[in-house]
Structure formats: structure tokens, C-alpha cells
Amino acid sequence: MKEVIKKNKKTILFFIFCYIMIFCFNFFRPIDLDLLWNYGFSKNVSDGLIMYKDFNMVITPLYPTITGLFMKLLGNNMIVFYIINAFYALLTLFIVYKLDKKIIFPFFIYFLFNTAPGYNTLTVFYVFLLIYLEKNNKSDYLIGLVISLAFLTKSSIGIFLALPTLYYLKKPKKIIKRIIPVIITNLIVIGYFYLNNALYDYINYAFLGLLDFSNGNSNYNFITIIVVLVLIYLIREYIKTKDKDLLYIIAFQIMAYPLFNISHTLLALTPVVYYLLRKHPKVNNLVIKTAPIFIIIPIISLIINYNLCHPTYDNNLFKYRYLQKEYRNDLNALENYFKGDYDNVYFFMMEAYLYKLGLDIPITEYDLTLKGNLGYNGEDEMIKKIKNLDDGSIIVTSLVFQESKTNMIKTQASRKIYDYITENLSPIGQFYKFRVYVK
């Protein structure tokens, strides 16, 4: 063992360095809602809640399941959450290293800025693992298992990463071998939800709601044009080279759809960067020479900013974390208004997870009322649930979104649900940036 470590000392030190940089880069950044949703899903599993039945989400169940189980073993707090997700990112780097160690450092610099904790980052691991397995002619059963894991992490990614298997249409045995583990793993998941009386909820939220998600959140802009141009380039490259890696890289571009925002697009381009680095090896030397600018300086800046802003909040969850002043003010205002009594209080706003986690209130199915996250015809179904709330129930909404339809359009928040609340329930109070209604 000592000889192995001594022989690979530089490689081991490099990956330790990468792990520390990934952890620091994410830990010292401000908290955002995507992070809190991913953390919240995993924490819910760790707390023993049943996915889709006790709380809603549009993703398939693997990421919160495995992350929640690790949190159950290691600690149900945000620092452990960062530690676990930094390890997921490290797995991607390890596979890229196995594919081509010459490009690992410049690839790491790009990937570092796209390692935000969450299920989307985990899907990057699957695309590189599939490329590695194909290159090394590994078992089709194993490839099928990875495709299934991708599907169970994010269904759209799994479906599109399965498409390169059509390359083997003339070899039906290979396709069948890949299908078998997909069927087995999904039957296990279906059985789990059936036994927990949550099978319909799983199908409804994770699949039937996807159409509402794409229709309600489509955001075509200049980034869409960039993605289309990249796709055209990749397709042309495949036609010229017949490189099977490109089939997976092309398939992974679905990551950018339908939001077409910067974070999803940069993540979608991760395997494209890998391909370009391999195609243009001279870029490596230039990146290595300027490495401190791309790694050390941003992380030092984040740490300095973290310490100067005193961004802590007196809550076990957010202790030692960068919680923005705006969010701290929100939480303080809610604490002062409700005085710790949150019985029958419902938060219908984008930040519901933030407030409930910060105030240590259990998450429920009412806390992610975003377009596409509510299952089939979900907005109308949620309005029915609001109608069935007990009389005297308190509903809190955000004045920011009520006062500006433009703001509502720019977010995933449901305008329809907000309009129902404001038009049909009685306002009983207003404070800071919140309005309170009673059922």
C-alpha cells in the first residue's frame, strides 16, 4: 500500500488539492435557491420523509436518496452536504483523468466553476463514465446500469444518454444487455414507491409534470443560439470523425433545455470543453501558466468577501455559511412577526425552502409551488389543496412578486397560484416584504 501511495504521490496530492478547491469554492459562495432545494430534498430523505408523498420535486429520486443516506450517516447539516457533493465532483475529475491525464488541469479549472452542489453536477459524472466505458469496451450490462442511474438522477439526461446506444441497432444483443439493468433498477424504484403508497405521486411529479415544466419555464434567448451553434459544430465533427464520444457529448446538451440560463448551459458545455482540450492540446500550456489567476485568486476573493460581510445567521443550518444580508433580514422579520408560532402557516413563494430551513420548520408538499414542480395540471391541483386547508390557516406571500408581473415572468414562481391567493383570501397583515392572508 505504501509503495502504491509513494508511486502515485503527485496524483494523490493533485486530487486532494482539487477536492479542497471544490469544497472551498462552493462553501464560501453565497447561498442560492437551487442549492437550498437540493439540500432540502436530501435533508428530507435523511429525516425519513417519503419523496413525492411528503414533499414534491420534479427530479427522479437517486440524488436525494444517496445524498440523504450519506447525510444520515455523517451528519444532517450543510457542511456535510458540501463534503459529499465535492466528492461527486471529484469522481468526474477522476474519470476525465483516466480518459486523458494531459488535459486534467485545464479541464479542472473550467469544471471548478460548475461544481455547485446538486443533481445537475452529478449528471456530468455519468456522461464521462459512459465515454470511458465505451472506449474501454466494458460490459454492456454496466453501461446499461449507468444509463439507468442517469435516468434516476435526471430523467431527461438519462433518456438522451441512452440514445447513443442506437448506434448498435445492428447488434441487438448489445442493446438488450443494456436494457436489462434499466428495467431491473426501475422496477426496484417502482416497487419502493408502491410499498410506500407513493407510486402515483412519483409518476405524477417526476414525469407527468415535465410537460408543464418545459411549457412554463421555456426561456429562449441568445444562449439558445449559442447552444444551437455548438450542436451544429458537434454534429459536423461527428460526421467528419465518427468519434463515438461525440454522441454522448451531443446528447448531454439537453442539459441546457428548457431554461437556457448561464449555469445550465455552462454545465452542458463541460464535455464540449473536454473534447476541445483534447483536440487542441497547445491550450494546456497556456492555461497552466495562468492557473493561479483562474483558481487561487477567485477563491481568495470569496474567502475575503465571506469574512468582510459577516454573513452568519444564528441557526444551526446556516452557521458558518454565507447567508446574504437580504435573506438574514427576511428571516429576522419572519421571526419577529410570528414569535416562533408557525402552526398552520404556509409560505407560498420561491424562497419557502430557505425560510423553513432557516426557521427550522418541517418541509411539506406546499413549499415548492413552482411551475412544472407540481405534477400534471399542478397549479390547479395546488389551488384545490389551498381551498381544502383548515379555516384559520395562515398564508404568507411576497410583496415583490405581487407588485410586478414582470418579476413573476422571470422566475419559476406560479402566477396562477399567487393570483388565487390575492383574489380569494383575506389579507390580515403586512410587514417588511411579506403580506399575510387567512383562509
What report would you give on this structure?
The chain has helices spanning 2-7, 9-27, 33-46, 62-74, 78-99, 104-112, 119-135, 140-153, 155-162, 172-195, 199-208, 210-217, 222-241, 245-252, 262-268, 270-279, 282-289, 291-294, 296-309, 325-338, 352-358, 378-387, 399-402, 405-409, 415-424, and strands at residues 345-347, 394-398, 426-431, 434-438. With 439 residues, it is mainly alpha-helical. A four-stranded mixed β-sheet has the order 1-2-4-3, sandwiched between helices. Strand 3 (426-431) and strand 4 form a beta hairpin.
Work out the radius of gyration: 23 Å
Distance between the termini: 66 Å
Q: Characterize the overall form.
A: globular
Strand order of the largest sheet: 1-2-4-3
- The ordered string of helix (H) and strand (E) elements is HHHHHHHHHHHHHHHHHHHHEHHEHHHEE
Integer average pLDDT = 90
Structural class: mainly alpha
Put simply, the count of helices is: 25
Q: How many domains, in number, for the residues?
A: 2
- Note poorly predicted spans: none
- The helicity comes to 55-70%
- Biggest β-sheet, characterized? 4 strands, mixed
